[in-house]
Amino acid sequence: MKNFIEELYYGNLEPQARAIKPNTEVERQMDFLANSETKLKSMLNGEAKDLFRRYVQAWATVHEDATLDSFITGFRMGARFAYDVFESEDAPFDELTEE
User: Fold this and answer.
1) Backbone angle region of 11, left / alpha / beta, with phi > 0 → left and psi within -120 to 50 → alpha
2) What does the alpha-carbon distance between residue 76 and residue 83 come to, in Å, rounded to a whole number?
3) Which end of the chain is more exposed for a tag (fewer CB within 10 A), N or C?
4) In this predicted structure, what is the pLDDT of residue 99?
5) Are 41 and 49 in contact (CB under 8 A)?
6) pLDDT tens readout for residues 40-49
7) 25 φ, ψ to 5°?
8) pLDDT-based confidence at 1, cuts 50/70/90?
9) Domain ranges of the chain
10) Full DSSP string of 34-46
């Protein structure tokens, strides 16, 4: 296996390539959302159907940006944790053992 940076460069890292575990609450809620959207589309006509379609698209855009923001924020927080580990050895107490 190549090193982590090479794997990233060659596009071999796909953290988004994940599946929902079966028989979980998330799976049930996703099924409910999909079924509800299908039913609502069949019940709506004309302007109401178009408004609902635009609503679903707007929600998807907002959700996508919020997910990206969470990913970026989490990645930055993890990097800050790693930096802090190596940046300083300051702590409230002194080491009693020598390494």
Assistant:
1) left
2) 10
3) C
4) 62
5) yes
6) 999 999 999 9
7) -60, -35
8) low
9) 1-43, 45-87
10) HHHHHHHHHH--H
